[in-house]
Specification:
Layout (H helix, E strand, L loop, with lengths): L4 E6 L6 H7 L1 E5 L12 E6 L10 E15 H4 L12 E7 L3 E8 L8 E5 H6 L11 H12 L5 E8 L2 E11 L2 E8 L1 H4 L2 H16 L2 E7 H6 L1 H14 L14
Parallel strand pairs: 1-3, 10-11
Antiparallel strand pairs: 1-7, 2-5, 3-4, 4-5, 4-6, 8-9, 9-10
């Protein structure tokens, strides 16, 4: 477990920010909340385009979580009894004073952020959004090496292809196509149903122009440079890295 578990949440509308600041509470749907949300000790806020140049696609503020309760949405917003999610369960975070981070944490490609499980330590030290993610040890190792090789990758990237939404471990954007890099934990991905699901996913992504590269835990832990030889060759075959901005999708 992280020493100081934290969560980055989106502030989707301007009218919610005064509630967060003055009433000091924040809410997210229970059904879409990350695992271990009930253990979060700190909360940070990411802002979409509607907040303007100073805030858009950045994490700027954070706060300590004083308590977490589960409530129906209608209890949080009694003036909206007809809302389609009025009777859905939400986590309500009771918050301490809102503080400004030492420096804003930007999303370089202006990607849409939902929730990012992270830690206070990462919040205080991150240079950009992708530094915040707290995932598996395999993905952490791959990310550190991607940075060392100066390969910019988007972590936990949601893409929509053929009507399906997939979460990529790493998305790498190139001039002639894009790359999905997956870090496969041995226990999960050797299961027959997981293999079938991965094969279907790979075929779908490939049919829409993605190059899918999968590396096992053994490869990452014992032959990481061989993995990067394959990644770099694929980048070169696709014309080199691209700095394009991701097209934001409402997912």
């Amino acid at each position: 477990m992280l020493k100081h578990p934290a969560l980055v949440g989106i502030v989707p509308r301007k009218n919610l920010w005064p509630i967060i600041q003055k009433e000091r509470w924040y809410h997210i749907p229970v059904e879409s909340a990350p695992k271990n949300t009930s253990l979060v000790e700190y909360l940070a806020f990411c802002f979409p385009k509607v907040f303007g140049e100073d805030y858009q696609y950045k994490v700027v503020y954070y706060t300590e979580v004083l308590g977490i309760e589960t409530k129906k949405r209608v209890k949080l917003f009694p003036g909206e009894p007809e809302h389609q999610r009025a009777n859905k369960d939400y986590f309500q975070f009771r918050l301490g004073p809102i503080k400004e981070l030492p420096k804003p944490i930007p999303s370089k490609r202006w990607r849409r952020i939902v929730h990012i499980p992270t830690s206070l330590e990462k919040l205080l030290n991150a240079q950009e959004i992708n530094d915040l993610y707290d995932t598996s040890p395999l993905e952490e190792k791959m990310y550190r090496e991607l940075k060392r090789h100066q390969i910019e990758a988007e972590r936990q990237l949601y893409v929509k292809v053929g009507g399906q939404i997939y979460c990529l471990d790493f998305g790498i954007f190139c001039r002639k196509g894009d790359i999905d890099v997956e870090c496969d934990g041995e226990k999960y991905h050797i299961l027959p149903e997981a293999l079938a699901r991965d094969r279907k996913r790979n075929n779908q992504l490939t049919s829409f122009g993605w190059s899918v590269l999968r590396f096992s835990g053994k490869e990452i832990n014992q032959a990481l440079q061989n993995c990067f030889g394959i990644i770099e060759k694929t980048i070169n075959n696709l014309g080199g890295l691209s700095q394009k901005v991701i097209k934001l999708q409402e997912i």
